[in-house]
Design brief:
By secondary structure, this protein is mainly β. It has one helix and 25 strands. 5% of the residues lie in helices and 50% in strands. Bound molecules: fe (ii) ion. The site of fe (ii) ion has 6 residues, from β5 and β10.
């Protein structure tokens, strides 16, 4: 670790309506391509008003991507064309490879208090776009959570912190996904792969994300790093909580329409035609 990554860009999330009318914060998405390559989108849903989320995400297709959903609070019921059905709840992760095609629905339950979580979309390279779909539910208990030092607590969804490896391991773009909390006057130094895209999404508190930037607060800020082989994040008088995410860039053309992301417009046209003709599902 001798080449610290500096903050290259700071972006702000924006409120949007998705699905059948779910109010959420889009951290980045369609308009940011290819900035976060291999990642396409990060949504942060969080509300204590059921009217903001109960409409949910009724039956819809996906092709050409992988999604990772991480719930902090609340329940989301899901069901898909592979025959999976279940509820993701507080602290659970659902990982899905849409590959050649999956049709699913994601319906939040009414909760007392806050319903909060994240959905990340990782792109698939051309050679994997039409792979077999797959799906995994990961319970909170399977996600390693520990103190790195007396000020820093991590939950490893994917990747490696001091030799402990997270349960999401077969995503094609080799992502690392860590939920990090730093108490006041703490420092988290973490190696990352050179050449990989690395970003932090700050969702609580405030911290310093390199040695040059002023303090960055949680109001929907996402920090995209320049290249290097480690990041160092520290706090002064406030704690901070953020997702630290990295992955291997794909570097291919992106053709994206709603829930389907391919390489060419023609592949998109075929996908929507197949969906209309009910020939979309290639692997059950
Ligand atoms: Fe979906």
């Amino acid at each position: 670790m001798n080449n610290q990554r500096n903050v290259n860009k700071i972006l702000k999330s924006r409120s949007t309506l998705e699905g059948a009318g779910v109010r959420l914060e889009r951290v980045f998405g369609y308009h940011e391509v290819p900035l976060f390559d291999p990642f396409l989108l990060l949504d942060h849903f969080g509300s204590d008003n059921p009217d903001d989320y109960l409409a949910g995400f009724p039956w819809h297709p996906h092709r050409g991507i992988e999604t990772i959903t991480y719930m902090l609070e609340g329940d989301v019921e899901h069901e898909d064309s592979l025959g999976n059905k279940g509820v993701i709840t507080n602290g659970d992760v659902q990982w899905m490879t849409a590959g050649s095609g999956i049709i699913h629905q994601e319906m939040p339950h009414r909760s007392e208090g806050l319903m909060q979580g994240f959905q990340l979309w990782a792109n698939l390279p051309a050679k994997n776009k039409m792979m077999h779909p797959r799906y995994r539910d990961i319970k909170k208990e399977e996600i390693p959570e520990f103190a790195v030092n007396e000020k820093v607590q991590v939950k490893i969804i994917s990747g490696n912190v001091n030799g402990t490896i997270g349960p999401v391991q077969d995503i094609v773009t080799d992502p690392e996904y860590i939920d990090v909390t730093i108490k006041p006057d703490g420092t988290f130094k973490h190696p990352v792969k050179e050449g990989h895209t690395v970003f932090a999404y700050i969702f609580d508190g405030a911290g310093f994300f390199d040695n040059k930037q002023k303090e960055i607060t949680s109001k929907g800020s996402v920090v995209l790093y320049a290249d290097g082989d480690f990041v160092e994040i520290y706090t002064k008088d406030k704690p901070v909580r953020f997702l630290l995410i990295s992955g291997k860039p794909i570097g291919e053309p992106v053709a994206w329409n709603g829930p389907i992301v391919m390489n060419t417009e023609n592949e998109l046209r075929i996908a929507f035609q197949e969906y209309r003709n009910k020939t979309f599902i290639k692997h059950k």
